[in-house]
Specification:
317 residues; alpha+beta; 60s Ribosomal Protein L30, Chain: A; Phosphoribosyl-aminoimidazole Synthetase, Chain A, domain 2; 2 domains; seven-stranded mixed sheet; six-stranded mixed sheet
Length: 317
């Protein structure tokens, strides 16, 4: 990254969030409105091409929501082995992506495709925000932590590749991934969130460690309160665990304080695709999950708090 940080093109006075202060998306000030930019694409994680397209779109949109923004436009990114896989399959993928973009009110204005031996699909998304962006580490002491989707996507994706995931597990994982974080953002804004991020490739603990970086604050989470997709813990006991999640575990282990079993810690490091939001609300917020479901149509779980006990460590009880 250092070679990029030295480049004057990345030092624009209009740049609010970028390489020097990385977050879920880049933010550029263009006057009264700020522009948010992000990009994400990946290889198939589901066998159903339409569902893969839906997940890819929801995943790409998530970074806009995680910055507090509204998605406006998107460009498709396609890598396709046209000799091996027909364009009829690609059409299903694209239809899935367009349906989710339509649900988000985000206009797909074009894109680019190349021949590739391995199929890949995703989007570059542009969003706007008139207020200040919601950063991932603007937390305060005594904040309460909430998440809006259960964990376990990475483990189920690995089980799908090994052809051992049940139909019920695949369906629950799919429904989790295609859910937009639009209403979760509305909840966060309505309740004056101090900080916000989405739980994706670094897993819950990886993104939580980013939330407390350079703050001199720490996080304390209750392992029994963290929701998990049905069947995931059994898959983990069968040693179904993706390599990306293993790297997450290794990267955050020195930042953790815990006495619970390693399997739970590994689950909390599981790399998610199109995961939920991790929200840090002021500690005096009174949140009723039932009322949140009725008002915003989303599930929410209180999992812990921010405090000053451990100096940028995560204590898991």
């Amino acid at each position: 990254m250092k070679q990029f940080e030295q480049h004057k093109a990345l030092k624009s006075e209009n740049l609010i969030v970028g390489l020097e202060n990385p977050d879920d998306g880049g933010v550029i000030n263009v006057g009264e409105t700020k522009i948010i930019q992000t990009v994400d694409f990946f290889t198939p994680i589901l066998d159903n091409p339409y569902d893969w397209g839906r997940v890819a779109a929801a995943n790409a949109l998530s970074d806009i929501y995680a910055m507090g923004g509204e998605p406006i436009s998107a460009l498709q990114l396609v890598c396709w082995p046209r000799e091996e896989i027909g364009f009829d399959i690609l059409a299903e993928v694209i239809n899935g992506g367009l349906d989710i973009m339509g649900e988000a009110g985000c206009t797909v204005i074009g894109g680019h495709s190349i021949d590739d031996k391995e199929p890949k699909y995703g989007f570059s998304v542009t969003g706007i925000i008139k207020d200040n962006p919601l950063l991932n580490n603007s937390i305060s002491d005594k904040d309460t932590l909430y998440i809006t989707k259960p964990l376990g996507i990475g483990i189920i994706a690995t089980a799908i590749k090994k052809d051992i995931a049940s139909e019920e597990e695949i369906l629950e994982a799919t429904n989790t991934m295609v859910g937009l974080n639009k209403e979760a953002l509305r909840f966060a804004k309505d309740h004056n969130a101090n900080a916000l991020t989405d739980i994706t490739g670094f897993g819950l603990l990886g993104h939580l460690s980013e939330m407390i970086r350079d703050t001199k604050l720490s996080a304390e989470i209750n392992s029994d309160k963290i929701p998990v997709i049905n069947g995931v813990e059994e898959l983990l006991r069968k040693d179904i665990y993706p390599s990306g999640s293993q790297r997450n575990f290794a990267s955050v282990k020195d930042k953790l304080i815990y006495k619970i079993e390693d399997d739970k810690i590994k689950l909390f490091c599981d790399a998610q695709t199109s995961g939920g939001l991790l929200i840090s609300l002021p500690g005096n917020s009174a949140i009723n999950p039932k009322e949140v479901k009725e008002t915003y149509g989303i599930d929410i779980w209180e999992i812990g708090e921010i405090n000053t006990k451990y100096n940028e460590k995560i204590n898991i009880i």
